[in-house]
Amino acid sequence: MDIPILEMISITKEFPGVKALDNVTFSVRKGEVHCLVGENGAGKSTLMKVLSGVHPFGTYSGEIFIEGELQKFNGIRDSEHAGIAIIYQELALIPELSVYENIFLGNEVTNGLVIDSNESISQAIDILKKVGLDVNPLTKIKNLGVGKQQLVEIAKALKKEVRILIMDEPTAALNETDSDNLLQLIRGLKEQGVTCILISHKLREVMEIADTITVLRDGKTVTTLDVQEDKVTEPVLIKHMVGRSIDNIFPKRGNVNIGEEVLRLEDWSGFSYALGRDILKNVNISVHAGEIVGIAGLMGSGRTELAKSIFGNPDHYRLSGKVFIKGVEQKFRNPHDAIKSSMAYVTEDRKGNGLILIDDVKHNISLANLQEITAGGVINENEEILVANKYRSELNIKTPSIQQKVRNLSGGNQQKVSLGKWLFVKPGIMILDEPTRGIDVGAKYEIYTIMNSLVEQGMSIIMISSELPEILGMSDRVYVMSAGKINGEMPVEEASQESIMALAVDY
Amino acid sequence: MEDLKQKTSEADREKSLLDIMKSNISEYFMFIALIVIMIFFSVTTDGVFISSRNISNLINQMGYIAVLAVGMTLIIVIRHIELSVGYLAGFLGAFSAIALTFWGWPIYAVIPAVMILGILAGMLTATPVAKLGVPAFVSTMAAGLIFRGALLLVTMGTGTIVIRDTVFNAIGNGFIPDLPLGGFLPGKHKLTLIIGLTGIIVSIYSAIKSRRTKLSYNFQVPSFGLFIAQLVLISGLIGYISWILSGYNGISWSLVILLLVVAVFQFITTKTPLGRHIYAVGGNPEAAELSGISVSKITYIVFAAMGMLSSLSGIMYASRLRSATTTAGLGFETDAIAAAFVGGVSAAGGVGTITGSIIGALVMMSLTSGMNLMNIDISIQYIVRGAVLVLAVVFDRITRRRQ
Q: Predicted ipTM?
């Protein structure tokens, strides 16, 4: 057999506290389309970042060979030099520049000092032909649709001699026609001898295009399958992706009586001006007192948007449909209104929009409910200390003092400060968005225990999570979202990792 | 083994005490720097700098910049900037002069009217920022051009407008009256001393009360010795300043206004939910919004406060010159921004105190005053002030990064 065009052997990459890649081996034959699949956080993107030099040589262990030659990339320039081009999920085009300017950005064609626009344009036309894009190279990027932008991105990658083209979720933002066109293009590139590595969640298109599929899970290679020989089917793939057992990582919950309905959404739809597309489509859900409702789905399926749209709509989506809290229709104008109606929202991004990192533990905990400790217009700072200390001990927040700046705490403890802040609001309905993302197993267990005790006290929890075991281990009922729609609803007893994943990847 | 454990834990304790000193150094550094600067000029000018007359002058010259610095602190805390305040102050000063001199309005109508105008101007400037996300740099620069034009427009016919209202002119030049106790402590302003004494008693009383409350909550308090040392230091400081001021004409009306402004804004920023909300918006606007705080409302409030303080600044300046001129307010915004940054405000948002900015204003004004007394050329003065500004900010960044 030929030497593989790419071989990554025993790649291990650690981040502080997490092993993102654990002894991963990945081998790609020349001229094939090789798909890389796995759950969110399985290590696909990290592996590609190691390959493209974003994580330079020396920050990982293991070896990379390209056509048998050992490679030591110190940065993206080096990997580009070796013929590797990578296209990220978020497009990296400059909207105000034209198609040809974007194609040559950073590698401008010059004659001496000045950009040679005529030469650039004529070269751009040739490259655009290769990707089958029929647009004027002088068109500004912002005037193109997402599908065409994706093609420009590929054209940009192809302007140099590319041996291996890596695409991270290229069809995630595309509609069906654009996706089909893109898959057609990938086939065309394959005929021209370009090797493609494709990261995708859409298993149907993976099955359609791949010659070989490698499955990653929890930073390890699970298996590499030859689509023809191994007769791969979707269920088989899903099993490999999620095949993990749930043992004793979820604390037992006491007896909880599920009470009356506290939240109901009717035909809830939303349009984002920022993204220029619909983010929620006719969502109907209901939540009862004492219930943990899990919302599963892949990244970008609209789960966070759903949470924010209910919680006072801070991102100003255009919404339609109805929200009922305890049977009464509510129209929240801002998060303040939602908080007043006994809602709380613990964000997925505690550093970005959850906590004030430069402020201390006690100020973060009291922030959303200052009126409770204010008398005569003045904050009672002594009461504030009592409140902060109460949540510090109840939630077991490990910090030298409540005067400690939140940015100095570990992820798990920051998450507990976030929880404390929202518990102080004394909510009836709590939305937890990825409550255990990026925190260690011990802290996870503690957070699950807290969630249990909250529902035992009659609170309702909506838990958004990408981790299927967590969804199965903690929820009473599960909704699965995909592309802004609720694709399915089931009691947790009827749900399995396979059934949820099948709904989540069904676009 | 046991021994070793004990030793390391002791080392930890010492290290943490050192850490506390380190983490506080950036907060006290400017205060220490101010004292060093004052001692330096006192020595180089043979004591003229620290004389009652000079300190009194210095405070009156600083007043109209310091009130702007208070507002600018909050503007920068919420991650914005205000470039129109100088021209707004100039325009509103001219407006006061016209209302007093040409329209014959009584002073008690002019001052509230001008303050309301200032608030409205601030809110108008804030609207593109709060509603549409226009950068404050642009919005306030545009507003500054407009106010400058307005100032030129209203002073076009007359040029400089002389103000003859003695009550108005006392704001920037007058002092509080003295008690008629002729024979007692000759040459000293008695009422100033009494106010100073009252200040000392009030601060001791409130410190004791706060300590008692903390103890009733069973909270840790500083040791008794440290507590007494703090009280002695604060009392000494108030006493010394009162003593110096009483040696000339006593407390000026400018100082009264400045102290009131500082007291009100210090109270709002440290004790009220509004103050917390301002710092939360500066620290992380998205998190603040999700915590139920309206970022646009806070933006309006802070710009309105800035507008109100601009009107005070304009009144104080016009009063000090006893006239409104076509160039009034020129460059005030730069001085206010410099004072805020020297005082430890961070452009990244969420960090900065009112008292810090007042100390910043004092540092900058002391430099000007001291160098004037030393007959240093204005060219060198600019260079020194620029160097001090950049050094203060660099020092602030380094100490913050170390943490």
A: 0.85
